[in-house]
């Protein structure tokens, strides 16, 4: 663990990282305006058996706050969780933007230049919720919740998580030989319904009445902040939509194993904190370090 505010030798910063990742960090740290967007579960918070107990890695939120407090830098969480859960679990600094429900809910980031974006919901500080909440999608959501609840009642260890625009079926703690088949059958059945969007993650299948994805969420953040470069960090299948919208000067970092469109990879949430910490220090030091 690095000491918090020990005198640092700039040239030594990030020397413990993969050289190509360090070079990429030095590069993005040198741009005038930078957006740093991070997934939460499995990225800043280790995966735990009970999703309601997924707390951030030590220093994770503090470092994101440091980034958000640095000139020309915005930081945001981009999560599949509901905005309310995300706030409760992560305890984010007020300067950090929040995107929940894969982009269906959002609070724009506060940079050193103040809150960005002209969205009235954003400007007032209230969570903005996009998507349609008409009677039709409300009825569809109700039907989806009933279907998932039915499966949960038959599969011990599985859990239902209601969301503002969808419902998630969690099966991490269920008998895996049965759970995967149950999830597959549920996905097949519910995806056939018009208006249902399925997102599959690690030991979770989510059924939403809103087509938001992390790629759109990231593009929205980019539109709001207009950065010269964007860093996006994520660990799951749904984060691939985010990596897919990154451009040449951006930096995508995948956490853990699995196929990815990200250009770089780290092993764990602890590594993510190290990467963000190095980035924050490079950024504060004004970059220009080779
Ligand atoms: Mg994740």
What does this structure look like?
By secondary structure, the protein is of the alpha/beta class. It is built from nine helices and 14 strands. The protein has helices at residues 19-29, 60-68, 83-90, 120-123, 135-154, 176-191, 214-225, 240-244, 269-284; strands at 34-38, 73-78, 97-100, 105-107, 110-111, 114-115, 128-129, 159-163, 166-170, 197-201, 204-208, 229-234, 251-255, 264-266. Strands 7-4-3-2-1-12-13-14 form an eight-stranded mixed β-sheet, sandwiched between helices. Strands 8-9-11-10 form a four-stranded antiparallel β-sheet, covered by helices on one side. α3 (83-90) links the parallel β2 and β3 (97-100). α1 packs across α9 and α2 runs parallel beside α9. The longest helix is centred in the middle third of the chain and has 20 residues, at 135-154. The model is unreliable at 117-132 (pLDDT under 50). The structure holds magnesium ion. Removes the phosphate from trehalose 6-phosphate to produce free trehalose.
How would you concisely characterize the structure shown here?
Pfam families: Trehalose_PPase. With 290 residues, this protein is α/β, with parallel strands linked by helices.
């Amino acid at each position: 663990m690095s000491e918090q505010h020990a005198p640092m030798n700039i040239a030594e910063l990030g020397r413990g990282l993969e050289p190509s990742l360090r070079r990429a960090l030095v590069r993005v740290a040198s741009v005038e305006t930078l957006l740093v967007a991070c997934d939460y579960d499995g990225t800043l918070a280790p995966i735990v058996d009970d999703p309601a107990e997924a707390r951030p890695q030590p220093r994770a939120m503090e470092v994101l706050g440091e980034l958000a407090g640095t000139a020309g830098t915005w930081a945001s969480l981009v999560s599949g969780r509901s905005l309310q859960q995300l706030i409760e679990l992560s305890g984010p600094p007020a300067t950090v933007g929040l995107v929940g429900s894969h982009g269906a809910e959002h609070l724009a980031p506060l940079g050193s230049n103040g809150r960005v974006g002209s969205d009235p919901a954003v400007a007032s500080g209230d969570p903005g919720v996009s998507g349609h909440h008409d009677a039709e999608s409300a009825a569809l959501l109700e039907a989806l919740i009933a279907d998932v609840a039915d499966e949960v009642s038959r599969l011990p260890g599985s859990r239902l998580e209601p969301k503002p625009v969808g419902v998630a079926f969690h099966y991490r703690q269920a008998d895996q030989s049965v759970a995967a088949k149950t999830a597959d059958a549920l996905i097949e059945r519910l995806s056939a319904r018009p208006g249902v969007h399925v997102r599959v993650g690690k030991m979770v299948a989510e059924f939403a009445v809103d087509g938001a994805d992390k790629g759109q969420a990231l593009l929205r953040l980019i539109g709001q902040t207009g950065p010269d470069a964007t860093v996006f960090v994520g660990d799951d299948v749904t984060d691939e939509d985010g990596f897919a919208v990154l451009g040449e000067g951006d930096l995508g970092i995948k956490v853990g194993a699995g196929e990815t469109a990200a250009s770089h990879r780290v092993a764990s949430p602890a590594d993510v904190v190290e990467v963000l910490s190095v980035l924050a220090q490079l950024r504060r030091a004004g970059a220009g370090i080779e």
